[in-house]
């Protein structure tokens, strides 16, 4: 799909409605039928857009995805709606009334900002992305709040806006995912300068794996997860410099660093807590351990153990039933004895792949019982902990 224009015509829109629920397995038959009455290029574009819309439901919800326009990269790289809405609300609460959204892609963040009542200048140098962003603003009734501009973001004057939001490209067609922040497009250093020039606030979306030492002193760093999956890190400017926080969606539930020392190491207790990925990425395991009155099972492993059950949104609790040295044969025999049919394998500090252990330890289900196995280290020794989540 190189041009959205044909899909925006009455014929294109009608064709999009017709192919909306097409099963990919039946695409060839549908395409053959439709090409009798429509240009082949338009049919291919409509079917391609239908596939993208189906993929986009997970990020944007069925209602929005069915009306929006996407590019392949836009579906992959756009922000999940819940995360974009959370960020937009933070900016609104900070008194921001207008935002320059730089590297806007298909407009996912611009849509969330506009729905929060914020006026948006959405900029992207990719003509396909800019066209999709413009079409999406119109499709969702937000064109009055979103101005889309096809331009190089480094050449855009943002002085007339309260805040700047930058989502630099972190993937390359040649190299795939980019880990060096200075290899982002535009580089992180440029984005920071743009953020520092904002009159009220700024937010920079970055990869969650960014080293803490790369966080500028002027920034607040926030790691965000949604439904247990870490989605991104955000550098905030004009908020609370030096603050580190983890935010879990839905909620939101936010944990802020108190600069605690590493938790003590203690023997494995009755319960094992697996901190949310945003907590781990933000280095706030100590804060969670303190709220649980717990300790670590190993100084290098982010599992917290206690003998008491304490509800927390920041970690999943498991009741531990067995502790074994790493031994596949012993595990296999134990699973057979307990008639286990469902085996969940988690790991931290182990080189063994979960699928490999699952295949070897449970080649054939023996019953209906379920067990979770943690491949980890306890006091430096490779260990298997068996248990089940606490409901």
Bin the strand percentage: 25-35%
- Strand count, sense and closure of the main sheet? 9 strands, mixed
Mean residue pLDDT: 94
The secondary-structure class comes to alpha/beta
Give the distance, in angstroms, between the N- and C-terminal Cα atoms.
46 Å
Poorly predicted runs: none
Task: Going across the biggest sheet, name each strand in turn.
Answer: 3-2-1-4-7-9-8-10-11
Number of strands: 18
Helix content: 25-40%
Shape: globular
Characterize the structure shown.
The protein has helices at about 10-20, 25-35, 40-60, 60-65, 70-75, 80-95, 110-115, 125-140, 190-195, 275-280, 285-290, 330-335, 355-360; strands at about 100, 120-125, 145-150, 165, 170, 175, 200-205, 220-225, 230-235, 245-250, 255, 270-275, 295, 305, 315-325, 340-345, 370-380, 380-390. It has about 400 residues and is of the alpha/beta class. It has a 9-stranded mixed beta sheet with strand order 3-2-1-4-7-9-8-10-11, with helices on both faces. The longest helix is centred in the first third of the chain and has 21 residues, at about 40-60.
Topology (elements, then pairings):
Layout: H1 10-19, H2 27-34, H3 40-60, H4 62-65, H5 72-77, H6 81-93, E1 98-102, H7 108-115, E2 119-124, H8 127-139, E3 146-150, E4 163-166, E5 171-172, E6 176-177, H9 188-196, E7 201-206, E8 220-226, E9 229-237, E10 244-249, E11 253-256, E12 271-275, H10 277-281, H11 285-292, E13 295-296, E14 304-306, E15 315-325, H12 328-337, E16 340-347, H13 354-361, E17 369-378, E18 381-389
Parallel strand pairs: 1-2, 1-4, 2-3, 4-7, 8-10, 16-17
Antiparallel strand pairs: 5-6, 7-9, 8-9, 10-11, 12-14, 12-15, 13-14, 15-18, 17-18
